[in-house]
Amino acid sequence: MYAPPLYRSDDLDRQHKLIEAHRFGLLTAVVDGRPHGTHIPFVLDRGPEHGPRGRLRAHLAKVNPVVPVLAEGAEVMVAFLGPHTYICPDDYATEEHFPTWLYSAAHVYGRARLLDDEGQLGQIDDLIAAEEARRLPKKPWTLDRVPRELVEEFRTKIVAFELPVDHIDGIFKYSQNKSAEDIGAQIAGFRSRPFDASAQIADLIHAHNADKFTPDSSTR
Fold first, then answer.
1. Which residues are within 8 A (CB) of 126 and not within 5 positions of it... i.e. 6 or more apart?
2. From CA 102, how far away is CA 208, in angstroms rounded?
3. What InterPro entries is this protein classified in (predicted)?
4. Could you give the angle at the alpha carbon of 69 between the alpha carbons of 67 and 73, nearest 5°?
């Protein structure tokens, strides 16, 4: 990943939180000499029992051409994209700026291992549980509500795998190269917009530039 030092973050907790909030990743590998991408949701397992940087788990269609690559243990990369937005020069308090894009992302590298039947079922259960937890207080939907024969039929069509994380890169580009005056204008602008993600972008700009503001500065 190209990440200038100003935007690079080696904070593992921050990287993990991005993955957990945006678990629909892009699995990339070399298949038959060409780049290959697959968009699938992942479960992230933290904790020392899963290695110093954790592990990812996922499943995909058995007929996907990347499956043999996973089975042979070749290195793959999974990219996760966090909140992002276009920045117009009108979003600044001062003059002479150029349009840009704010964003965050985490790139995970490792060598996959295919899961057995028990691991496959556990991965599916954990993925469903992670997403159902976002919908609380709605009663969580669970796999046992599906007839067992349908579950078994579905499982014949997929392959599950784990990916111990060998390396992870993180970039969080949220106007760290701008002045407090310009950052404050961006935050105020996003907070005034009626779009769903605007308040979240404003919070991220503020969080990544908190050291530029005094405790009594008004950016909200």
1. 43, 57
2. 12
3. Split_barrel_FMN-bd, TR_PAI2-type
4. 115
Question: Would you report the helix, strand and coil content of the chain in percent, each value rounded to 5?
Answer: 35, 30, 35
Domains of the chain as residue ranges with CATH: 12-177 (2.30.110.10)
Tens-level pLDDT at each residue, the chain (220 residues): 999 999 999 999 999 999 999 999 999 999 999 999 999 999 999 988 899 999 999 999 999 999 999 999 999 999 999 999 999 999 999 988 999 999 999 999 999 999 999 999 999 999 999 999 999 999 999 999 999 999 999 999 999 999 999 999 999 999 999 999 999 999 999 988 877 678 889 999 999 998 887 655 544 4
Q: Residue 105 phi/psi, 5° resolution?
A: -160, 155
